[in-house]
């Protein structure tokens, strides 16, 4: 189970304030905490729409990787920003993400290929499709395009796009998100990695239940074979859950003292 | 997800005292609580070795089914007791269990067949085998024998035998328990049900972590396709987890208020 810290995103006020003010110390401190809490990779987002990322992303990414000594996941829709940031990355990052909405697909693929980066491919085309078939069709198309650009499956992370459980057809989505993980593990050869942004399931839920829903869903998708999860690394409950999943998979030696 | 209450077992002192004293009121009250807490089926055990079950099991089973208005899971190694109890069961129960250790396999199978009961078949032969292959070999043999006795797969519940996470090769066991659920779902046709005694994973663990380990493991196996779980129905944490699994599977309509 690869743990990607979702924490450095636009909803994190302290972080965004620090990004705005180029407050290196705060970004360093936030990054170190994420490493201490057990992140394997840190996702770095500086805006939702990518505007201005060409200035902020390389700067922030550099501070984060220095402080945390971890690889990065670059969360931007701005290829100019990605290009600049890829040149400062000490090890090939994960690029978050390519969907069927991008107008610059070829450019993204060429960057990923050139820098030997990994790539999240998302089941997304305008909206998140409601059926398993539609999700798989998008992902298959993106795998094909990535392969054609010389990006092997081992560097691809397929994301079935988790939506929140509360809203209307949310549960139908969760059902086929789970099925999508299983189908990808069964059907794609050579094997592809699967990834999910776990916290999305509890968007809009009362604070008191978020952690429980996220933890249960992380275990549930892991049972289906999930390889990587974007989670709130500062949530102790989630990190205990990650510990348990790694124990169930016999990846670490379990001790009850570690989750007390 | 079928929830089987494990609670009426020999480790439950209040219950065993009531069994000993034929204290109908206490058994009724314990049973009603299990129904209220959300059990679908109640497991009834009166001894570990089956001695005396021919007296106690039919009596207790009758009290439990009357009070809880639920089907039963008869947990006894005593075929005489099973036979007597099957005649008082209002609906065909689940028989817990048949392994490769029984000397009276034919008798058990014939009872299950005659009373149209369901049957838990356990990956067990002396001890719990350490490899996936050994577990599957035992289960395949038991499926074959059950089918030959006219018990269709839809009335079989295969149990990979959960062992505790703490002890020596415990984690290797958990790994192949998970793989066993997946393999059974993929390989057996017509489909068989899968079942796990969840609490076994946390045997010997400190009280403060049992619930967390059990809940995580239940979600994890459910993600792999587990159909039924033997759990502590009085553990609110576990029942919230069951609620979430049913929500993820779109079997019920989710409301955050239900798990607050």
TrEMBL record, chains A, B:
<dbReference type="GO" id="GO:0008705">
    <property type="term" value="F:methionine synthase activity"/>
</dbReference>
<dbReference type="InterPro" id="IPR000489">
    <property type="entry name" value="Pterin-binding_dom"/>
</dbReference>
<dbReference type="GO" id="GO:0042558">
    <property type="term" value="P:pteridine-containing compound metabolic process"/>
</dbReference>
<keyword id="KW-0808">Transferase</keyword>
<keyword id="KW-0489">Methyltransferase</keyword>
<dbReference type="GO" id="GO:0032259">
    <property type="term" value="P:methylation"/>
</dbReference>
<protein>
    <submittedName>
        <fullName>Methyltetrahydrofolate--corrinoid methyltransferase</fullName>
    </submittedName>
</protein>
<dbReference type="GO" id="GO:0005829">
    <property type="term" value="C:cytosol"/>
</dbReference>
<dbReference type="Pfam" id="PF00809">
    <property type="entry name" value="Pterin_bind"/>
</dbReference>
<comment type="similarity">
    <text>Belongs to the vitamin-B12 dependent methionine synthase family.</text>
</comment>
<feature type="domain" description="Pterin-binding">
    <location>
        <begin position="1"/>
        <end position="253"/>
    </location>
</feature>
<dbReference type="InterPro" id="IPR050554">
    <property type="entry name" value="Met_Synthase/Corrinoid"/>
</dbReference>
<dbReference type="InterPro" id="IPR011005">
    <property type="entry name" value="Dihydropteroate_synth-like_sf"/>
</dbReference>
């Amino acid at each position: 189970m690869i743990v990607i810290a979702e924490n450095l995103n636009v909803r994190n006020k302290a972080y965004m304030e620090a990004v705005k003010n180029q407050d290196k110390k705060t970004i360093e401190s936030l990054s170190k905490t994420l490493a201490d809490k057990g992140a394997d990779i840190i996702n770095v987002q500086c805006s939702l729409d990518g505007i201005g990322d060409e200035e902020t992303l390389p700067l922030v990414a550099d501070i984060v990787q220095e402080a945390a000594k971890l690889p990065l996941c670059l969360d931007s829709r701005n290829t100019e920003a990605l290009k600049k940031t890829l040149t400062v990355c000490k090890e090939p990052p994960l690029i978050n993400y390519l969907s069927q909405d991008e107008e610059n697909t070829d450019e993204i693929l060429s960057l990923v290929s050139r820098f030997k980066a990994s790539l999240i491919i998302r089941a997304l085309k305008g909206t998140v499709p409601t059926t398993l078939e539609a999700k798989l069709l998008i992902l298959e198309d993106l795998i094909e395009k990535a392969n054609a650009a010389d990006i092997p499956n081992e560097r691809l992370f397929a994301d079935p796009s988790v939506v929140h459980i509360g809203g209307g057809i949310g549960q139908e989505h969760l059902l086929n998100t789970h099925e999508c993980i299983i189908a990808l593990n069964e059907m794609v050869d050579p094997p592809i990695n699967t990834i999910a942004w776990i916290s999305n399931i509890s968007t809009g839920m009362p604070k008191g239940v978020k952690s429980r829903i996220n933890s249960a869903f992380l275990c549930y998708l892991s049972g289906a074979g999930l390889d990587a999860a974007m989670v709130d690394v500062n949530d102790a409950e989630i990190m205990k859950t990650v510990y348990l999943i790694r124990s169930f998979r016999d990846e670490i030696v379990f001790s009850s003292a570690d989750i007390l």
